[in-house]
Amino acid sequence: MKTKQKIRKALSKRFRITPKGKILRLHSGGRHLRRRKSRKQKRRLKKPIEVKGRLAIKLRKLLGGKK
């Protein structure tokens, strides 16, 4: 009987897998010093961005993704 792979809890808080299997993360630089950033920049920082390449493959394995 195979053992079930545990997911990394720290990663599950930082990344999200969409129903289609894409991995999303938040932009950096949106946590502090928001006063000096423009409204446009802050709006862009709110939206999640897709993780691509080899990193996405590694993360999917660590997060327990199927695809």
Provide a descriptive summary of the structure in words.
By secondary structure, the protein is α+β, with helices and mostly antiparallel strands. It has one domain: Factor Xa Inhibitor, CATH 4.10.410. It has three helices and three strands; from the N terminus they run αββαβα. A three-stranded antiparallel sheet has the order 1-2-3. Strand 1 (16-17) and strand 2 (23-25) form a beta hairpin.
In brief:
This protein is an alpha+beta fold. Helices cover 34% and strands 12% of the residues.
The radius of gyration computed from the alpha-carbon positions, rounded to a whole number of angstroms, is 15 Å
Structural class: alpha+beta
Q: What is the CATH class name?
A: Few Secondary Structures
Q: How many strand elements?
A: 3
Summarize the helices and strands and which ones pair or pack:
Blueprint: H1 9-14, E1 16-17, E2 23-25, H2 39-46, E3 49-51, H3 54-62
Antiparallel strand pairs: 1-2, 2-3
